[in-house]
Amino acid sequence: MKSENVTIKKEYCPNCFNAIGSMRPCPYCGNEQFDRKNPLALPVNVVLKNRYVVGRMLGAGGFGITYKCYDLKERKICAIKEYAPSTSATRLSDSLTLTATSVSRQEIFEHGREKFLGEAATLSKLQDIPDVVKIWDCFEMNGTAYFVMEFLSGSTLNGIKKAYGGRIEYSIAYGIILQAAESLGKIHEEGNIFHRDISPENIMVTADLEVKIIDFGTAKYINNQKSQTLSVVLKPGYAPPEQYSTTSKQGAFTDVYALASTFYYVLTGKKIPAAPDRLVNEDFVPLEDYDFLGEQYAGLTLVLKDALRTSVKKRIQTMEEFASRLKSFHSSITGQKSDSSFVHSEERTVLDEGDGKKRGNKKIESPKKITRIYPYLEGKTDPIYGYRYYIPLNTMVTVGRSKESNIVINMGVIGRKHLEVFYDTDSGLFFLMDNHSVNHTYINNKLCEPEVIYPVKPGSYLRLAGNSCVFQLGVVNEEYRG
Prior knowledge:
Strand content: 25-35%
CATH superfamily of the largest domain: Transferase(Phosphotransferase) domain 1
GO molecular function: ATP binding; protein serine/threonine kinase activity
Binding site for ATP: 81
Domain FHA: 397-448
Shape: globular
Organism: Anaerobutyricum hallii
Distance between the termini: 61 Å
Number of strands: 25
Protein name: FHA domain-containing protein
């Protein structure tokens, strides 16, 4: 594998990819992270294939590392996943080449690389399904393999759960899970592929509020005995009993179990017991037993019980059936038609431009234009990166670590009620006030004095505790006729 790496010393910001030379932090986005904490990760500003500039690390798992990158040819941001198994690979002194940790692990390392390339092939078969991350390139170098994907600005379901303080309220969690179920139904039917590794880490919510299913590689190892030594992800609490066997049949019902487990986890903050333990007693704590849920969720408990049956024959068989059951329950407690969007908007009537149309002998006037305003705070640092917190109009909202805050940021450096945010529709400005936070609040790079109200324009950056938690303020103006 011929090396085509080029290293650009302190040239691009690994987050926004503006050319910044030696300036620290980045004057454009405030990023200060230029060094790797993971010894297995590539250095920043390495250029792969004479084309892709390696930026910040987006995540690392048992088999690979994903980076935010910049495509010099297409002039766009992308994501690159590198095969880098943490238990069987090491980086050589050149900080680039990957090799097996020992001769005895060489076969395991190479076998895993083949399976990694198989994930790229799987994704390529699903490119017509919009709910799956797009793949643009695949190549081998540095002793390992890479594939290039679209960059998804957003957060995993697990990241959203953390940002909400440990669990997600039903009104939000329902919409995400329903979208995931509908997406997986398309993948099963159109792609004839079962994911087999559904968990909160593999469901992505983009900044555009779309649900994407990610990571189609690791679950492929389950049915191969050799690959059991490759740190196979059988995630307790998500994997059904059939995944613990090399001979049991798997199918759409396997993903149903995992998605139902995920729903339960994000609603309650508690995992379903591991599948082997449930073979003796498959009961779990009903949703209605949780004080923050209550009796109205008894019907959802019944749906989840049927989706979490340890017996494959007794379990809900398809994502279509699971989604239908979820919609029926949702309608029963809300009295509304089910919607797979977790940001619900008013029902809209849209007619053509003009002075009106005639329907029969009756003239129907064109509806007046109506503008809906949605102010938001969009996360720019982990674990809230890309996630939008929409705030109500003309209402004071508290941001802080306390569960009593309207927007909960579960980070120790954030104050219990760090600051207050208000969006004024008359002026079109945000008004912010720091609540004597220990680690301070900054608007762009200006320190805010406690209990002083600051008017702030949309597009500005709100920094909590330095750059530990960064938001960008924004407003969506949505025009329709009503």
